[in-house]
């Protein structure tokens, strides 16, 4: 099983967890044609799409998936925000089986209508934690093998930037900083963790090299900063 990263920033987010026979898509903020290409045009193996919230960089191309009859899963609030009916509503703390994936959504803290993170299990990967667009992580998670966690900005870099006050305040109130990401990881037991994947870095208010180095140094775990075109092995065992 591997993770293919098609986009991980404000220009568009999309990740695919897949093997030869099965694929789960996280977010649909990237053009559908790029998703098709990443899957070698084998849409038959896609068991579903999880969408965290309604903002365009995560939700924009949802209609293309619906038109192709690919099941889309999101909270009632996310679908209501876009006036979309007839899709697969999922709720916090209620597990759902999608193919061989077991998905347990949980509530996040963002400036939108009922955003969700996802605690994902598959026999080939173990547990995967996916949390993006949230200013902190409100829960602890057991036995996570692979962390996909937002690390959007660092306060000292933000303080030096020329970003306007409105955007700065929104960033502080709706996205996870490096310091908060570090604290969230420190609060959890990482003894079973193989990979930490830092996602949704701000283009102007982060430093990918320093973020990766500092997180890897802090926890001794293989750490990545998500970038378009990257592929990462998500096997349950590290070797």
Automatic annotation (TrEMBL):
SMART domains: Lactamase_B (SM00849). SUPFAM superfamilies: Metallo-hydrolase/oxidoreductase. Residues 11-175 form the Metallo-beta-lactamase domain. InterPro entries: Metallo-B-lactamas, RibonucZ/Hydroxyglut_hydro, WalJ/YycJ-like. It comes from the Bacteria. This is Phosphoribosyl 1,2-cyclic phosphodiesterase.
